[in-house]
Structure formats: structure tokens, C-alpha cells
Amino acid sequence: MRVFHLSAECYPVAKVGGLADVVGSLPKYQNRLGCVASVIMPWYDVDFVNKNTFENIFDGKVVLRNHQYPFKVLKETKNQLGFELFLIKIEGLTDRQSVYGYEDAAKQFIGFQTVALYFMRESEIQPDLVHCHDHHTGLIPFMMNYVPEFEKLRGIPTVGTIHNGQYQGQMGWEMLNYLPGFNLSDSGLLDWNNIINPLAAMVKCTHAFTTVSEGYLNELMNEKGAGLESLYRQESQKAYGLVNGIDTEVWNPETDEFLVENYGSNNFVSKKKANKKVLYERYKLNKELPLVAFIGRFAAEKGADLLPGIIQRMIMERSGDVNFFVLGSGNLEVEQKLLDVQHRFIGNFGLETGYNEALSHLIYAGADFLLMPSRVEPCGLNQMYAMRYGSIPIVRKTGGLNDTVPDIEEKNGRGFQFNDADETGACWAIHKALDFMSNTKESRKLRRKIMKIDFSWEKSAQKYLALYKTIKQR
Ligand code: ADP
To answer: Which residues constitute the domain of residue 278?
Structure first.
């Protein structure tokens, strides 16, 4: 079965968050199961693109409103990611250094989707299925089925995965002129609350839609659908919750090149300490103290605004007997508050703002606990990386966190849960976790256990393939 994945991000080409990790690994595992999965994404002016070789396999011009943009489709020549990678380069639209954050994002992603469809239409080998990821590719199922230009692709099954339902890519109807022409009687399929909503359009037009955990699917249908709850419920007969896997080759403490010492579940005690030592030396943190870490976007969804209060309160309540480390970027107010806390508690709190892949690996290895006070967490990958690296997750009971980190008090406990996304809830759980750590034997037993959990893509990749097959048979 030939499958094209369409996405704005893909690790290691361009990564902002978990979307990249998923699109950079799922196709690789699908290919091992006998599928022919490839990735089509925008070309960005980034290291991976500049350092690798690509051949130009298709070019032309795309008209958006009344402006013509030259484009190229470039194929990575060495197949080094375990799948074919196609980049769509549109002059003046995708040749940029960042994935997101541009004022003309709507135009940028309409251009990307339109050219992706030109490419698929003209490609010698037609896909058996097209898999769209998040709202940046949400217009594809509509365009394939209702835009006469793409008639050749009509009826090819599509799957749409919602990695984050908070972002929907809404745009006003004035953007209609940027879309390829279609019969206006079909425009209701693009509409939600009188504006064009690409995520809603994806849910309406795709053959099946998935979210990245069962728990998050329920939340989307009930209170956390960011306005699309009724749509999710209405389309629930084609909804599936399939939990993400992790790339156990990239995220492997036994081989990870970003660690100062590698380790497995039999020798993690001293080696985790060695990684922690480097982190402590680099950031001048007090030695011999347990480490609670946070890695992620400074966004309300992640509960990042709670971090300054939590860290301050915990250091005071534990009389300085705990260290924290935060790596992230986003909301500047949060960043400033964290800096203030760092100045007050020198030696107890390490902070690195910005995006740093290498440091994130060292933190997963060196930490004792990973804190995730998320208000919303569709699946969450950090907690799975943490467990694989022997760091115990402390998580708010929500979405994918609830699905993947049962509380320590449960039979199959893996970490510490708390109910309320507030300072008190998080501090209660951190105290509990730190007290637990003082029982060295139990704490090591839990670390050994969570390191051995199979979070690999194999199971989930098989579930996706089973879903593809069901759709094709309909
Ligand atoms: P998101 O909602 O941000 O996609 P996920 O838990 O699904 O959250 O995935 C987050 C991914 O991004 C993980 O691989 C995590 O390690 C990584 N990450 C987040 N922030 C940073 C950062 N500042 N530096 C390095 N990696 C980061």
C-alpha cells in the first residue's frame, strides 16, 4: 500500500514539537510492515535541507489569487530517514527559516497543499491513501474530492490525524480567492462559524480521523474541542484514538549520542548520575540533590505559567533540598518570571530558554522526575521519553498523560498523577514523588520497570495499517 503523509513538520528536517517526532517515525515503522510510506512537507531554509542532497523531480507555477509563484518538488536522494522525503519549495512562500509564525501562514499552507496535490496528481504512482496531519494539511481531503482540477485524486481514501485540536488554522472567507476553484455549493464543508476552518474541513471530508490517544478523543468530543465538540460527536462513527509511539532508535539511552554516558535498565544508577553531574556543572546547580525537570513550550496548554510558582514554593517547602531544570520557549511573561525565580534561587534552578534538541536528551537522562502540569495533552511524548530514560513522570491527569502514566497507587503504576492544573495539585504530587525517592529500593525498582516498557511504534503502526485497510475496503 502506497501512503503519502502530509505535514508541516518532520524530524529531523524541521521540528517544533511532537508532530515532527510522529511524522518522522511513523512512516519508517510502517515501511517495515510492508507499506510504502513517504512524507511530503514544505521546504524550509534549515540545516537538514542545506546539508543533504535533493533532486528536482517536478516543477511549475502555482497561482494564488492573482500572483504566480514558481515551485519545485525536491526528493531526498539517499532515503536516509527510512522513508522517501519530498519537499515542496515555493519561492516567496516556503523558503523560510521557521515553520510557523508568519503573518501570511494561511497563504503559505494553502500554497503547500495545492502544490502537494499537483505533485500527487502528476506522479506516476498514485497513492492508495493520503494521511494528513493537523490543520496545515486539513484542506487536502476537501480539495481532493471537491476541486475539479484534482478530479484524478477523487475517491482516494484519506485519514486526518489531530495532534493538537487547539490550533485549527481559521481564516476569513476573503481567503477563498487563494483556493483552487470549486463549486460554491460545497463551501459549507469548509465552514465553521462563518469562517473557513481547515481542521473542521478535515474532519468533515476525510474518510476517518484519528487523535493521538483515546483519552484525548473523549476530551475533544466533550469539553476540550476548542469549539468543534459537536462536530467531533457528529462524526464520531469515523473517529479513532490511536496512541503515539516513540522512535526507540532515536530515543535510546543505550546509544544516544547526546548523553555523556549511555546506559540501560541494568546499569542506570551511576550512569544517570553522570549525566546529571554534567548538567549540574554546566548550570552551577547544587550537587547531590534530586532533579525535577520540565521540557516544552511555554504555553497555557502545557501549564507553563504554573512553573514559576511551583518551583519557588517547592524549593522553599523542601528547604532547598531539591533542584529544578526548565528547558523551553514561548510566552515571554513566563520566561521573565522563570528568570526572576532563577535569580532568587541560585544553585537550585537551571533554566535554558530556546530550542535545544541535544540538551533535551541530556535532561531526560539526568533528571529524576519529569514534570508535566498540562491543562491539555493530546498524547504527550515527553513522558514516554522520560520513562525510557528512567525518569519518573509527574503528570496532570489528562488526555494522553492519563492513558500512558497510571498513578503509582494503581496496580500498573508508572508515575505520579495529580488532578488539578494548579500549583497546589502539582506541589502535592512533587512532594509525594520526592518522598517516594527516599526509598531507594522502590524508586530504583520503578525506574527499572518504566525503562522496560515498550512504547515503540510497532503496535500503533500496525493499528494505523489496520485502519487504512478497513477504509480501503469500504
Ligand atoms: P507538543 O504539544 O509541544 O507537540 P509533545 O509532548 O507531543 O508536545 O512533544 C514535544 C517534543 O518537543 C518532545 O520531543 C520534546 O522533547 C520536544 N521539545 C519541546 N520543547 C523543546 C525545547 N525547548 N528544546 C528541545 N526539545 C523540545
So the answer is: 268-454
Radius of gyration of the chain (CA): 23
Q: State the Cα–Cα distance between residues 6 and 10, nearest whole angstrom.
A: 10
Residues of the chain scoring pLDDT < 50: none
What is the rounded distance in angstroms from the CA atom of residue 70 to the CA atom of residue 59?
Answer: 8
Q: What is the pLDDT of residues 115-155, one digit of tens each?
A: 999 999 999 888 999 999 999 999 999 999 999 999 999 99
**pLDDT given at position 473:** 77
Three-state SS sequence of 312-356: HHHHHHCCCCCEEEEEEEECHHHHHHHHHHHHHCCCCEEEEECCC
Contact between 412 and 403 under an 8 Å Cβ cutoff? The reply is no
DSSP string, 271-306: HHHHHHHHHHHHTTPPTT--EEEEEEEESGGGTGGG
The length of the chain, given as a count of residues: 474
Q: How far is the CA of 119 from the centre of ligand 1 (A)?
A: 31
| Pair 438, 469 in one domain | no
Alpha-carbon distance 342 to 371, whole Å? Answer: 17
Do 280 and 402 belong together in one domain? yes
Candidate from 216, 351, 355 with most ligand 1 atoms within 8 A of CB, to mutate:
355
- Is ligand 1 within 6 A of the CB of residue 357? yes
Q: What is the pLDDT of residue 302?
A: 97
Q: Write the residue with the smallest CA distance to atom 9 of ligand 1.
A: 18
pLDDT, residue 74, reads 98
